[in-house]
Write a structure and sequence with these properties.
The structure holds 2 protein chains of 2 kinds. By secondary structure, chain A is α+β, with helices and mostly antiparallel strands. In chain A, the strands form 5 sheets. Chain A has a 6-stranded antiparallel barrel. Chain A has a 5-stranded mixed beta sheet with strand order 5-6-1-7-8, sandwiched between helices. A 4-stranded antiparallel beta sheet of chain A has the order 9-12-10-11. In chain A, strand 10 and strand 11 form a beta hairpin. Among the domains of chain A are: 146 residues, MutS, DNA mismatch repair protein, domain I, CATH 3.40.1170; 49 residues, no CATH class; 83 residues, no CATH class. In chain A, 29% of the residues lie in helices and 28% in strands. Chain A is elongated and about 110 Å long. By secondary structure, chain B is α/β, with parallel strands linked by helices. Chain B is built from 6 helices and 12 strands. Chain B has an 8-stranded mixed beta sheet, sandwiched between helices. A two-stranded antiparallel sheet of chain B has the order 1-2. Helices cover 34% and strands 27% of the residues of chain B. In chain B, helix 6 links the parallel strand 8 and strand 9. Classes of the chains: A alpha+beta, B alpha/beta. At the A-B interface, helix 14, strand 13, strand 15, strand 16 and strand 18 of A face helix 2, helix 3, helix 4, strand 7 and helix 5 of B.
Chain lengths: 524, 255
């Protein structure tokens, strides 16, 4: 088992969201008032003499250039989950360790099953170094320990963190099997992370190290300190019962952030969203997944909430495309009030692969196609890119659009369509049939209004933006009615095929509800 | 060892060269015959090499009508811009959809950039277009339409991209046509422009003008049965255009 421990998570979470703070003196406080407790101190502020557990006022009195960030639970949670994603990039089984409430409130630890990794790494130390290096590259430098059990690995990582505050060396610890008790014996009992009450009792009894604890008789310990101490003793011996680590059940990836000040303009909001999206993509890349539809939730000033789903034509990892889609969504439907907090979530989608077929043309690479679809959607807007579909509707101008998924098409059509033009001329040597069994209509969206003069129920002349003149030939009317049960959607249309004197052949329509003529198609 | 006069050596070399050339020609014809028999999944015909020479023939995307394909010299040129222009009811959309149907029937994908927002799925489906293989892009304006066309041309796997520009009187300008033709050439895609008037000018490798001839209303009550149009080949980079013989009459008829 391996444990990756980040001792100062609030600090790392802030640096991850605000990289501009790197190298500057700042602290993370539990609240936004002057008496709030300082829970994490940056190295620059530490060098100035600022320490954790004091108040913000005290910290400011020590360092005048100090910046104070208020702890963001959403940001912290996202950073913790990033550690899990990082662990999952090495092992399929990983989980966050239980949060320490007493001795190590700022730490975050992720445990991962390292069994079977010997095929990838010749030595456990190499694996631990690789894990540490990847965490550092993500902006989450930490300590890695490898041991036979989870609790021992966690304690070993804690020991690295407490004995090496400079973090320049000894960031990796590998315990060979059978050496657990020898390693644990001299360690302070606080590293076992007893709860608040038990910790105080142990201190009162003068039990400072693991060795002190293990020397005492088990039954007497339970009698005096309660049953919790037995679990602590089992942990100290490296014999704690551990259930297997679960495989991740969900591919939901969420990045969230509480804003310092409410934001009411789109540019700063997009700047925040850009950061969230880039971190989201960073995590998806770790999991070898691509971004699916985005769920954007905005907490608004005054208690309102704006939740929206931003559709994506195909899974993608292109930040530019995602940002444009988010921007289009916000432009088309701006939030009603200033934004206080942002939450962006997506369900990871595996990158697609295509099984090539010997008897089928090689289509586009599925991932390239997904990127293309997303880019096209970001260019044209949602719902304007896809495969055309015949709408389940009798209305002549109805049409549909569905997601373009050519990868699901396994083979070509079983037979050549009957309407593919025949190669033999149909009527004499000089005339060839182009479109087979149908006349082709060009739709006019929206339909163009027309002024029509009617004689004996038949149009005789028309004036419209498409064509104007006397009607030479008419065919119709063809009546279509539907949705009579709905006041807003019902329709009753009379269609005429007309040829105007300028040669144009139109589909002219009289709407009985609007009592208006319009041209909704041109034969072409 | 007898020395031959230099003229004899030259003759022998020339004879050998001719023999090798004729063998290469035979091999090339065999190879092209073999390529035409290959299933569409194996489409390396344009890239097969023989004796280190790349076959330079760009190929054509056939419409599927013998007389039209003959007029066009085999179909619409691959890796080039072609243009179909004409007034309303001249049959330009019918011709484009026929090409689309022939292309999708082979299992190929096609992109329809609908700057005019006029694509009618019902007409296309009745004409035999496999709608699942058509990527319909409905850009809100010209700039996005050009950008979408460029994006599609950059994506491998779309041998046909149609740009419907019929409701625009003006083209996007020389720079855009140049960029589009270069992308089409690089990706070996047939780029087909539908327009009301000729817009691409010299950038189009092939230009067809469609002219409405007559609409046939028959029967009592009268029904629109046929649209007859004249198809005029006005420009072809591959073949010389004969102004008298480069046109045919086509008709489209209702079921």
């Amino acid at each position: 088992m391996a444990c990756l421990l980040v001792p100062d998570l609030p600090l790392r979470a802030e640096l991850r969201a605000h990289p501009e703070l790197e190298g500057k003196p700042f602290v993370v406080a539990a609240g936004d008032d002057a008496r709030a407790e300082v829970i994490a101190v940056s190295p620059a502020a530490f060098a100035d003499g600022v320490r954790a557990r004091g108040s913000v006022t005290q910290a400011r009195s020590i360092s005048s250039a100090l910046q104070v960030r208020v702890m963001s639970p959403a940001l912290e949670q996202a950073t913790r989950q990033t550690l899990v994603d990082l662990a999952l990039s090495f092992s399929p089984r990983a989980a966050l360790a239980e949060r320490s409430t007493w001795a190590f409130p700022c730490e975050a630890a992720v445990l991962l099953d390292a069994s079977g990794l010997s095929h990838l790494f010749s030595q456990e130390a190499h694996f631990a170094s690789a894990l540490g290096a990847r965490a550092e590259a993500l902006g989450l430098p930490g300590f890695v320990a490898v041991a036979a059990s989870r609790s021992v690995a966690h304690i070993a990582a804690r020991r690295c963190a407490t004995t090496d505050p400079s973090r320049s060396e000894h960031t990796v610890c590998v315990l060979p099997p059978g050496h657990e008790s020898r390693f644990l014996s001299p360690l302070p009992v606080d590293l076992l992370d007893p709860d608040d009450k038990l910790g105080q009792q142990l201190t009162r009894f003068g039990i400072h190290t693991v060795r002190d604890l293990l020397r005492l008789p088990r039954r007497a310990l339970a009698t005096r300190l309660g049953p919790e101490v037995l679990q602590l003793a089992a942990r100290a011996r490296g014999e704690e019962n551990e259930s297997p680590l679960p495989a991740p059940s969900d591919d939901l990836i969420v990045e969230a952030m509480d804003l310092d000040h409410p934001v009411d303009r789109s540019e700063p909001l997009l700047f925040v969203l850009r950061g969230l999206l880039s971190r989201l993509l960073e995590r998806l890349t770790l999991r070898r997944l691509a971004c699916g539809p985005l769920d954007l939730e905005l907490e608004l000033v005054g208690g309102g909430r704006d939740a929206r789903r931003i559709g994506i034509a195909g899974p993608t990892r292109d930040l530019r495309v995602l940002l444009r889609l988010v921007s289009l969504s916000l432009e088309s439907d701006a939030p009603d009030a200033a934004v206080e907090s942002v939450r962006l979530g997506t369900r990871g989608h595996p990158l697609q692969c295509d099984q090539l077929d010997l008897f089928r043309p090689r289509g586009p690479d599925p991932n390239t196609l997904d990127r293309t679809l997303s880019e096209l959607e970001s260019l044209c807007g949602a719902g304007r890119v896809g495969a055309p579909e015949i709408a389940n509707e009798h209305r002549p101008d109805a049409y549909g659009m569905k997601p373009f998924q050519p990868a699901s098409l396994s083979s070509t059509r079983s037979s050549t369509p009957s309407s593919i033009p025949s190669s033999t001329p149909s009527s004499g040597p000089e005339v060839d049939r182009v479109s087979g069994e149908t006349l082709v209509v060009r739709a006019l969206r929206p339909a163009v209004a027309a002024e029509v003069r009617v004689s004996r129920g038949v149009p005789v002349s028309l004036r419209s933006a498409v064509s104007s003149g006397d009607v030479v030939h008419t065919s119709g009317p063809w009546r279509t009615t539907g949705r009579w049960w709905s006041d807003t959607e019902r329709y009753a249309l009379d269609h005429f095929d007309v040829q105007v004197s300028d040669g144009t052949v139109l589909r002219l329509c009289f709407d009985w509800h609007a009592r208006a003529w319009r041209v909704d198609g041109v034969y072409d | 060892m007898s020395r031959q006069p230099p003229g004899g050596v030259l003759k022998q070399v020339r004879r050998t060269h001719n023999r090798i050339e004729s063998r290469i020609e035979r091999l090339e014809s065999l190879l092209s015959d073999f390529c035409t028999r290959l299933p569409p999944g194996l489409t390396p015909a344009n890239r097969l090499t023989l004796g280190g020479r790349v076959q330079e023939s760009a190929g054509h995307l056939p419409v599927g009508c013998d007389r039209i394909d003959r007029l066009l010299g085999g179909g619409f040129p691959v890796g080039a811009l072609s243009e179909i222009s004409g007034a309303a009811s001249s049959g330009r959309t019918s011709l484009a959809l026929t090409l689309l149907a022939a292309t999708t029937a082979k299992g190929e994908l096609a992109g329809w950039v609908d700057a005019a927002d006029a694509f009618d799925p019902i007409s296309a489906e009745r004409l035999g277009v496999d709608l699942d293989r058509v990527l319909w892009v409905r850009p809100p304006n010209e700039r996005e339409a050009l950008a979408a066309s460029e994006r599609l041309l950059k994506t491998e796997g779309f041998p046909l991209v149609l740009l419907d520009w019929t409701n625009r009187r003006a083209g996007p300008g020389t720079a855009s046509w140049l960029r589009l033709t270069r992308l089409a050439a690089a990706s070996r895609t047939t780029l087909l422009l539908l327009s009301a008037e000729r817009l691409a000018g010299p950038h189009a490798a092939l230009a067809i003008e469609m002219q409405p001839a007559r609409a046939c209303f028959t029967g009592t009550p009268s029904l629109l049965e046929t649209l007859e149009t004249r198809m005029l080949l006005v420009r072809s980079r591959a073949t010389s255009v004969d102004p008298d013989g480069a046109s045919i009459v086509v008709n489209e008829s209702a079921a």
